[in-house]
Amino acid sequence: MEIDDLFFHYPDQSGLFEQFSLRVEAGHRFGLFGPNGAGKTTLMNLMTGLLTPSSGSIRLFGKDMQKHHLRINRMFGFVPQDLAFYQELSPVENLAFFGAWSGMTGPAIRRRTRELLDILGLAAVRHKKVQQFSGGMKRRVNLAIGVIHNPRLLFLDEPTVGVDVQTRHAIINYLKQLNESGTTLIYTSHQLNEAEELCDTIAMLDEGRIIAHEPLDSLLSKHRQEGLEGLFLELTGKHYRDDSV
Amino acid sequence: MTVYKLWATILKDVRVMRRDWLGLTFMFVMPVLLVLIVTGMQSGTFELVNKNKVPLLLCNRDTGAASRQFIHAVDTIGLFEVHEIPGTQNEEMIRERLYRKEALLAVVLPEDFSAQVGARTRVLAGKALKSFGLEDSISGGSVKTSAAPLILYYHPVLQESFRRSAEGTLYSALQLVESRQLLKTIYFSINEKELPDSLENQFLSNREKISEIPVSRSNSRKAPSVTQHNVPAWTIFAMFFVVVSLGSGIVRDKRNGSFIRLKTLPTSYMVAILSRQITYLVVTMAQTVLIFAIGVWVFPLVGLPRLDLPGDWLGVALVSVLCGWCAVSYAICIGVFAETEEQANGFGVVSIVILAAIGGLMVPDFALTGPFRTAMKFSPLHWCLDAYYGLFLEGGKLKDVWSNVLSLVLIIAGLQGIALWGLRRKNLI
Question: For a surface tag, which of A121, A156, B37, B391 has the fewest beta carbons within 10 Å of its beta carbon?
Answer without folding.
Answer: B37
